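Help needed: design a sequence for this.
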């Protein structure tokens, strides 16, 4: 596995979703975590909070035994900001409480904004697209059932 470099995006494969962090330096990342100690960091419960805290943590501590990879997948679509600017912007966010929304402001939106200056989550886009396709299939099935059938003698 390639060693992460400052400014790299880290995709962490949790059960049912991916968590995202931005690699800063010396084995440390910045990521969004629930602000309340009532939630265990890394639990799926954390996605239901409306706020998150920007944490500076050891990558190993964020993984919770999950696999991960460096994934700068939007580099072909957007030009990353200069690394020093990414790190400067990232460090300014540490310990701040930010608005969190699974659909409009999750950890993937957060790290893409830091790396590219673009607030985007392909995880959400893909989920919404799958939902739209499923809804379309249901509508087509209902319309097909309502269509008059030819009468056979």
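Sure. Designed sequence:
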């Amino acid at each position: 596995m390639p060693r992460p470099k400052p400014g790299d995006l880290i995709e962490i494969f949790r059960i049912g979703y991916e968590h995202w962090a931005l690699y800063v330096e010396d084995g440390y990342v910045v990521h969004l975590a629930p602000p309340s100690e009532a939630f265990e960091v890394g639990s799926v419960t954390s996605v239901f909070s409306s706020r998150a805290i920007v944490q500076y943590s050891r990558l190993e501590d964020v993984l919770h035994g999950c696999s991960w990879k460096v994934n700068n997948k939007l580099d072909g679509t957007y030009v990353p900001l200069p690394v020093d600017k990414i790190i400067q912007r990232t460090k300014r966010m540490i310990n701040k409480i930010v608005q969190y929304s699974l659909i409009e402001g999750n950890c993937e939106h957060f790290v893409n904004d830091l790396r590219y200056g673009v607030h985007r989550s392909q995880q959400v886009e893909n989920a919404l697209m799958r939902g739209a396709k499923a809804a379309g299939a249901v509508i087509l099935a209902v319309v097909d059932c309502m269509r008059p059938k030819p009468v056979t003698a």
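Strands lie at 9-14, 17-25, 28-33, 51-58, 67-70, 97-99.
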